[in-house]
TrEMBL record:
The keyword Cell inner membrane does not apply. Keywords: Flavoprotein, FMN, Oxidoreductase. PANTHER family: FMN REDUCTASE (NADPH) (PTHR43408). It comes from Pseudogracilibacillus auburnensis. This is NAD(P)H-dependent FMN reductase. Residues 1-144 form the NADPH-dependent FMN reductase-like domain. InterPro entries: Flavoprotein-like_sf, FMN_Rdtase-like_dom, NAD(P)H-dep_FMN_reductase.
Length: 188
């Protein structure tokens, strides 16, 4: 199984810290899975201008193709101005509409306050559903107070992240089994 963790911001450290923790959990619990961390701060991406993804070059092409070949996508995003950052929105704009078809997507959010928790429900989940992803219903919402010196210090958050990783992998396995049963119905 190929799992891509996407750190959806080019500034700050909290989202990257959270995604590195997620990666550590995936690698520890599922050592045979192919796991990649895509930290947008480490890449030079072009802005989407309406071209097909395969017409882009360099980092832009690499990121879009890596995302589209994944079985699962764990998206980490901060909340900026009650919304997802433009860098993450640009990734969605670079991808074709059905780029996430049959992929499982789960979400880790970092925020300065709990006031913006509905951003996931009102913005991010609809984008993922529109792109045909199977979205893990629960997500992890991490506030400023849950971090200390670039480390997550809230045990409940760590537990919820472990559960999210497990739910993501189990959801991929469940959908693979469903597709296999459907495919077995055909004789060709």
């Amino acid at each position: 199984m190929k799992i891509v963790a996407l750190s959806g911001s080019i500034v700050g450290s909290k989202t990257k810290t959270a995604m590195e923790k997620v990666m550590e959990m995936v690698e520890q619990k599922y050592p045979t899975h192919d796991v990649h961390l895509l930290d947008l701060a480490q890449y030079s991406l072009e802005f989407s201008d309406g071209r097909n993804y395969f017409e882009y070059k360099g980092d832009t092409k690499y990121l879009t193709e890596t995302i589209m070949t994944a079985d699962a996508l764990i998206i980490g995003t901060p909340i900026f101005q009650a919304s997802i950052p433009g860098t993450l929105k640009n990734i969605f704009d670079l991808l074709p509409v059905d780029a996430l078809r049959d992929k499982v997507a789960s979400i880790v959010v970092t925020a300065g306050t709990s006031r913006h928790y509905l951003m996931v429900e009102q913005q991010l989940k609809p984008i993922l559903a529109y792109m045909k992803a199977h979205v893990v219903p629960s997500y992890v919402f991490i506030e400023e107070q849950d971090f200390l010196r670039q480390e997550i210090i809230n045990d409940d958050i760590v537990f919820r992240m472990e559960r999210l990783v497990e739910d993501t992998v189990l959801t991929v396995e469940a959908f693979e089994e469903i597709r296999a049963k459907k495919d077995a119905e055909y004789d060709f």
